[in-house]
Please model this.
Amino acid sequence: MTTTTTTTTYTARPIAPGALAELRVSDDAGRPTAAFTDEEGGAPLRCCLRRSTPGERIALVSYAPLRRRAAATRTDPGAYDEQGPVFVHADPCPGPDGGALPFANAHRTVRRYSADGRILGGRLVGDPSPEAFTRAFREAFDDPAVAFVHVRAVEYGCYLYEVTRG
Model:
C-alpha cells in the first residue's frame, strides 16, 4: 500500500504482526479479545488494510499506537498516549496485498508526529484522490522534524494506519 512521488515513496503500514498477536489475546486496555462473525462486512481492518467481507471473523480491540511506538523506541508518549478502537482479523491473515492506498475513499486527517511521538500538526484531506494524499504526505515530510504520520478517520478520529518515508 504505497503512493509514490518522483523522489519519495510513502508506505501505509498495518499494525505490526507482533502487536497483532498480542491484540488477538488482549487489547491495549487490558480487556480479553472477543472475536465475532462480521455479518455485514465493511469494517476497516488494520491488520491487512482492507475492508472486511460478510462472514469473516474479526475483533474490535483497543489499540495504543503511540504507546507501542514509545515502548519500541524507549521514548515517552506523555500526554499524547491515546488508545482507540480498531478492527482486526480474529485470526492471523496474510496482511496487505500491496495495492492502492487503503481507506482513501473519504475525508481523512493526516496527523504529523515527531520521533518521540509528539503531535506536530495535521491536515484534513478532503479530496479522496491518491494525488491529494500524496500532497499531504509530501507536505508533512517536507518538515524534517516529522518522523511519521497517522491517517485517521474524520468522523470518529480512529487510527487507520501509519505512514513513513520509504
Summary: Residues 130-141 form the longest helix (12 residues).
